[in-house]
Amino acid sequence: MPDITYNRLYADCGRYAMNFNLYLDDRTAKELDRTARKLGETRSGLIRKALREWLDKKSLGNVGWPSLILEWQGAPDTPPFESHRDELLPPREDAFS
Question: Is residue 40 part of a domain?
Answer without folding.
Answer: yes
